[in-house]
């Protein structure tokens, strides 16, 4: 695979166009928090909302609006598909693994069992300038999940 | 050391001649991702020819020492080289040597101006400086087309002084709206500041028109000449602007140095911004007297080797002839605009193909983010700029957050443009459009 094919895996290209979670879900009366992240170098931004289940520390939904490159849009979409149903603890562990993989400059082999579709972003870690793109929505979700369960 | 050039002075630029010139730029021979490098990001920063790098090295090998201080021979040689550089760079824009202040870049030049105005507004510089003092009711006018370097310093100055910052809007194509300019510039306008060539739209501003508007109301004019001085003949006297700012690194010279041009009379009256060593005559515990301009504005140890290198870059450009440089870039700019405009789903920003433009073109690829466009091009060794190009207000006015920009210079051939256009035409399909 060329470097470019590693970066733009089919899963990423698909998610960047058929996006899960796009469009903020109404959170009135729910345990929820929103977070905004901005990448000043490219102007990409995301506004993301985490809604928890009523009585449990379990993510009910992740929804978002924003604009950015294919990597950042796909990362937000994959995240919104994977997170619902996870406990906030499980979710934090996933974020940690995702971050470790992205910061590894290609040295960490992704565990597809754990990372699922998010493993498709392993190639991004070789493109240091694009790591931020993939992390943008995940950081927003990490912050929002913490705040919602606080 | 006599400087050698590969081409005869003032020869028209052609692909063959450019191929000769490229031998002066070894960096252009490197590969990127296994492909020959196609460098189309001069709008951000240019490459340096050997003649410029050698000049800097020669200075360090033979003359390096502190300028304007000390009486030993090296110090004299260094001071000569430094002041010769000033004459050379000033002469390039038809300014007197006393009218050129070294700064670290164009951004600092514009900040120098606004901080000096702020000082004047507080009474520093006394009676002479009162013409730069701003206060409530005064207006500073800039344009929506500007680089952030020509926006934020004025925002801060307005905040400091109580003056109001106003903008001449841009049209749907991102061009300065001259009709609106006529109503926005008024008796209250004290400063009119604008770019000469837009780093995004590639348009050339009607300086004559804006200067005449400013003159009618007695406003000071400031020209952001970052994208013009490197690419076309610029004569500040003919243009009639009061101040101008530009950077060396966009014109074949190293980073770290830029300049502010100011009319003699104005620089003499303006209070300094940075203060300290070198810029004074007499210092007591309570006050200091300043050197005459331009030294008054050059506190601390200066960037001597960069000045020397910059002068070598100016000589290189002079050897090519700025008319020839301009003609070649106008040609490359048209090829860029035509090539981009012909690709379905891509919107060209700025003047339409066939209209006058500089040797750069920014564009929006529908459905594909500029970062992704840049990545695909980089895979083929083509270096372009992606993002907001430090012009967020302009992008907002165009309904965009970012764009992609290709910008050419004397070392680009028409084949570079063709290679770029060919690759660009594959981008939308790659992303499934
Ligand atoms: C039009 C314009 N103005 C100002 C600047 C700022 O130049 P510098 O970063 O060298 O100060 C640039 C370069 O990015 C520019 O293109």
Name the features.
heterodimer; A: 150 residues; alpha+beta; Sufe protein. Chain: A; 3-stranded antiparallel β-sheet; B: 433 residues; Aspartate Aminotransferase, domain 1; 7-stranded mixed β-sheet; 4-stranded antiparallel β-sheet; globular
Describe the main β-sheet of chain B briefly. 7 strands, mixed
Strand order within the widest beta sheet of chain A: 1-2-3
Strands of the widest sheet of chain B, in order across it, are: 4-10-9-8-7-5-6
Beta content of chain A comes to 15-25%
Account of the 3D structure:
Chain A: Pfam families: NifU_N (PF01592). Chain A: This is SUF system NifU family Fe-S cluster assembly protein. The complex is a heterodimer of chains A (150) and B (433). Chain A has 150 residues and is α+β, with helices and mostly antiparallel strands. Chain A has one domain: Alpha-Beta Complex (Sufe protein. Chain: A), CATH 3.90.1010.10. Chain A has 6 helices and 3 strands. Chain A has a 3-stranded antiparallel sheet, with helices on one face. In chain A, β1 (31-39) and β2 form a beta hairpin. In chain A, α2 crosses α3 and α4 (88-102) packs antiparallel against α6 (131-149). The mean pLDDT of chain A is 93. By secondary structure, chain B is α/β, with parallel strands linked by helices. Chain B has 15 helices and 17 strands. Chain B has helices at residues 15-21, 50-62, 73-92, 106-121, 152-161, 178-184, 207-216, 236-239, 264-269, 304-320, 322-341, 370-379, 392-397, 414-424, 427-430, and strands at 31-32, 35-36, 38-39, 100-103, 139-143, 164-168, 189-195, 220-224, 243-247, 258-262, 280-283, 288-290, 346-348, 360-365, 382-383, 385-387, 403-407. A 7-stranded mixed sheet of chain B has the order 4-10-9-8-7-5-6, with helices on both faces. In chain B, strands 13-14-17-16 form a 4-stranded antiparallel sheet. Chain B is globular. The termini of chain B are far apart. The A-B interface holds A 2-4, 7-8, 13, 16-17, 41-44, 67-71, 73, 127, 130, 133 and B 33, 368-372, 375-376, 379, 386-388, 392, 395, 401-402, 430-432. Pyridoxal-5'-phosphate (PLP) is lined by residues 105-107, 147, 149-150, 195, 199, 224, 226-227, 247, 258, 390 of chain B.
